[in-house]
Amino acid sequence: MGSIFSAALLAAGAAAAAKFIKNKDIDDLNPQTLAKKAVNSVKLTCDTSVPYDNGAALTPPMGWSSWNLFRNRINENLIYETAKAVKESGLADCGYQYINIDDCWQSSMRDENGKLQGDFGSFPSGIKALVEKVNGLGLKLGIYSSNGTLTCEDLPASLGYEAIDADTFAEWGIEYFKYDFCHNVPIPTQAPKIEKIVVAEAGTANGKEYGPDEAVLTGEAKLIDDEKLVSGKYISGLSSNMGCCEFPCVYAEKDGEYILTLCIRKKSNNNKYAEILVNGTDLYKTFLPATKSFTAEGRHQIKIRLNEGLNSIRIYNPVASRQDSAAIQYADMGRELKRAAREYAEKNGCEEKPIVFSICEWGRNFPWNWGAHAGNLWRTTPDIMPKWSSILGIYEFNVLLYKHSGAGSWNDPDMLEVGNGNLTFEENKSHFTLWCMMAAPLILGNDIRKFILDDGTVDTENPTYKILTNKDVIAVDQDPLGVQCRRFRTNGPEDVLVKPLVNGEFAVCLFNKASSETEISFDIGEIINKNFVNTPISQEYLLTDLWSKEEFTAYGGFSAAVPGHGIRLFKVTVK
Ligand code: GLA
Fold this sequence. Notes:
By secondary structure, the chain is an alpha/beta fold. The chain is 26% helix and 27% strand. The longest helix is centred in the middle third of the chain and has 27 residues, at 322-348.
């Protein structure tokens, strides 16, 4: 695995380096500086060790989303009719429970309180009313926004509005939230240069000053002499998670609100960012604008709370790369969702509805490195399309990421295209089976209303319906162990995948990427001996074909014919 990731890292590093070369005069740069810059642009330095842990999505979430088929042509009737069809067709009984509205549900206007609201034409009854109707069917409603200034369809989005939007969603009763990455604005890696800080009780003018000599400097933080400043120096080296300054003895007369003024040395004309950690517990995040240097000094004020007596104030910028920026921004939203769900339940004396948090930045910032800290699932790849090449490409990448998936935190190779476009029956079946083997979220993307015939009965002969309702295959996806399959063998167009299941059972999927039928074999003893599963060696195994339901006895080696672009899926049990 290590080599795969270093390859990905190198590729990203090379891309970053290429971009960097374009932007700078190449003569300035020696290869070492260039390499360092490239690696820095992708490395993760911020702390992502604490798991998200909102108690949701302990198995991969299952449901439906409006995007793959309906795109921007959605309205409240379509969403409700789909929910009804999910229930009436029996899909709900198979485990599909989230009805997710993707992009284009929003009005382009926030309301007078700054809240998002449904489009006046297509969602006239409002989202809360729709949640109640969908809940009435025993199903849950999901919604969408972007970690940017606008969504991918250029509608209002949530960057900078995390708290208010999370509160709105919790108040509406939303239980699944997909957070896209269009129109993202990365957090600056630059930190301000601090001449001194001033702390004043809110509403009073007499602040107490703490100069640069009173700070404890760590990492690359250092004092720079500067005759333009009254104090004659400032603290530099706080950018890119490289250094930190702490004022350990900030005195407050009493507990309460204070104004912290950062007196800064205006230098580069870049946006800046700083985190202020008070007494090791209270975190304040602040953005500083790019500065014109008509004068040398600037002031930047933040409201903070201090305790009576001595306090510590730590100033730093934890963002060293795009990866850090995305990790922090997604974690910020995740935190607000958890807070909002909890507070709404507390205020209203009702049971808390945890919100499944679906990170969707297309794998761009290596979300498998930090996604389990920020949310419940993360897209690993670009947008899926109902084409075999797209399914295959996504599979080839996502299958490598098995180590990062687990209960409550899943790799997301994107929503299903089963039943869409021109995928053949075998291709649809393979797509579904591969996603189940990879413990992927099963979010359907087809028109569920088609499963209900004119006379109100369910079209159980519909091939797409048959695929999506195969409970044995779904059980592989939903297995409580929560382990993504590993590729046991790859040989030209033939893959053998193995997924451990509870009770020492496991699933073996034979995948034929070529267009004509082939015979693929595997040895159960070898799978066990190579520790792909936790199953005792036995003389005899029972193999159940989870599509045809045929049963076989195997003594070790086994082989099966696999159609072109097809799969065979077996559950293996010790006899
Ligand atoms: C991005 C996402 C898609 C979908 C669209 C909506 O492309 O990756 O899944 O949500 O935005 O605009």
